[in-house]
Amino acid sequence: MVIPPHIERLVIVCPTWVGDTVMATPLLRALRQVRPQARITAVCRPGLDELLDGLPWLNETIAVGMRGVSGVLRVARRLRRLRPQAVLLLPNTFRAALVARLGGVPVRIGYRRYGRGPLLTHGLAPPPSGQPVAAPAYYLRLGAFAVGPDLGSTDPRLELVVTDAQRDQARRLLQRVPRPFAVLCPGANRPAKRWPAARFASVADALAARHGLAVVVTGAPAESEVARAVANAATATIHDLVASGVEPGLGGLKGVVAEAALMITNDTGPRHIAAALGTPVVSLFGPTDPRWTTIDCPHERIVVANPFLPEPLVADRHPGDCVIDRISVGDVLAHARALLTSSAGPPRPAPARTRSAADPPAPDA
Fold first, then answer.
1. How far apart are the first and last CA of the chain?
2. Is the pLDDT confidence value at 351 over 50?
3. CA distance linking residue 188 with residue 227, whole number of Å
4. Which site from 10, 167, 245, 295 is most exposed, i.e. has the minimal number of CB atoms within 10 Å?
5. Cis bond upstream, residue 180 (ω within 30)
6. Chain centroid to CA 220
């Protein structure tokens, strides 16, 4: 145990990617359980605060950019004002460790990676390289090192909360969208991870014709071209939220996803949002390996580009054999149909609830 029970002020530096931040929520929940009296502050990049908004385990969330020398110094100054007794660094970057060191935090905990060991007061050796380790387990392992082995047996579910304001924002975005509806996420941070737009369009047509679903396409502003390509290729009416000119942000996206009957997505951040809100999701992987992001999600169906790749091989290292184009429209629709027609109905866990001003605040808020 590195962080003793008497520590009162703890900062968590969150990952920079949407999906990774959602996959850190089991750790955030567990830290609150084992340190119920501590003041826990999350530090994240701007935008991700909307993702974390409403979670009852955090006393506060600070959104601040860390890019460049000015960003490093800005975050370090914020840490000095907070005067945390310990910081848990979830990003593996040298920059995150430098910020904690310049911020004067006396206990700095993280994985010893990328030459940053001397900047940490307590460094944990990373898992052996070569085989994938799921991000939730990776973060929980670091948490157990920080606060003790009890954390290792924690609930691995991803969890997010939609606030009243975020749900209202989603209703405005969806005011012309019939219910029920499906959400398509055809973008991704790399073109190689994007299933062809024409196939997303074929799926949209089938969902509309066979299941009576309206179809919404969403994505980041930089993904407007691929969203437009899906809308143009489909016969069914596509409600393109990217082209609406209203940037929903992650808060509005949470509200949209929470209302959806189904999501179909590439390996990208909205997949994790759907999982955390109880929305049934079909996730397409190629050439990435889903074992890096394995999540406890009974309402998810994973479709991989090469289901016959031997288990010792990591898909990311065999892009030629795991091209996402190998995934067929028929396979995706079969998984979608299974989720939509399940006799028991897909589970919709409690995190999808609205958090309102009447809810009790986190401890010491």
1. 26
2. no
3. 11
4. 245
5. yes
6. 14
CA distances to 80, 116, 130, 194, 253 from 226, rounded to whole Å, are 43, 38, 33, 9, 18
Torsion of CA 227, 229, 235, 241, to 10 degrees: 20
Q: Over 70: is that where the pLDDT of 239 sits?
A: yes
Q: What is the pLDDT of residues 18-28, one digit of tens each?
A: 999 999 999 99
Model pTM greater than 0.70?
Answer: yes
Cα–Cα distance between 284 and 290 in angstroms, integer? 9
How far is CA 328 from each of CA 74, 196, 203, 255, 308, rounded to the nearest angstrom? 48, 10, 10, 30, 15
Most distant CA pair in the chain, distance? 62
Reference 201, options 242, 224, 177, 229; nearest CA is 229
Q: Cα–Cα distance between 213 and 223 in angstroms, integer? A: 23
Give pLDDT, residue 350.
40
